[in-house]
Amino acid sequence: MARTIDIKADRQAALEAACAALADGFAIAIPTETVYGLAADATNPAAITRIYETKGRPRFNPLICHMADLAMAEEHAEFDPVSRALATAFWPGPLTLVLPLKPDSPIHLLATAGLDSVGIRVPKGFAGALIGAFGRPLAAPSANTSGGISATSAAHVEADLGTKIPLILDAGASAVGVESTIVKVEDGQLRLLRPGGLAAREIERVAGKPLLRAKTASAAIEAPGMLASHYAPGASVRLNVTAVEPGEALIAFGSAAVSGADGARIILDLSPHGDLAEAATNLFDYMKRADASGASSIAFSPIPEEGLGEAINDRLQRAAAPRD
Fold first, then answer.
1. Where does L-threonine bind (predicted)?
2. How many domains does the chain have?
3. 66 pairs with which residues across the strands?
């Protein structure tokens, strides 16, 4: 069973234990402002392999490499002017940039799934301090079994991966609640690879150009979170419902009236006041609670497709996608 350290109670002990475990090539659970990550040394192939094995993650699905700051990121990737402007504006924060990997970067190809590009993010808070203390980038996908609901608390990690990893660092609930937004500058255009915790309009404001969305699902996996089926609970998922079937779990938004709600197995409201930031924070925790209720299906009320609603709907569409 994993050892859990409360960062607020003993930050120095958490830093020392984490650095020791990472140096020994282990994968550990760390808190970030988006979701909890399963982190390992991005330059160590054995450590990266532990991430894939622990999660049961396909090795063709690349990992985001987390940096302490922009200076560390510049040691590993080539920045174009637009990407640099975005990094300056939004790091540390919930933005991942897919950039050309420098030929001399020690980031191992297992972390990039063999691609000549790398997804890079600078996280806020303790995670950034840990990377700085460790001195090397950390590959860190979400700390959950591959394809399942992402973890937004140490308790989520312990319930899912607690018997598979040596250490969980606990900083309470994740503030953002959904993964980072992933963008890539290519041929002068700015492409959205995954919506996330930074709204598209904020990126467009700084970049001074539109953020292009893919019209169809791409066969090429360029970044995490692009698999058609992802973020899925054990129960099936129905979206944009106006009526609930008896025994379903209902996850509502904005106190919307839903027919048949009296017969729901459990009712949760992502944000009674219609706040999309609050809804994003609650999303994965409420999905886990609904799944644990024993309902065979989880029904979601409509979520506006604006701001963080784009990221929420992306996660829900992948959760509801047909599963292999």
1. 34, 66, 121, 140, 142, 180
2. 2
3. 121, 138
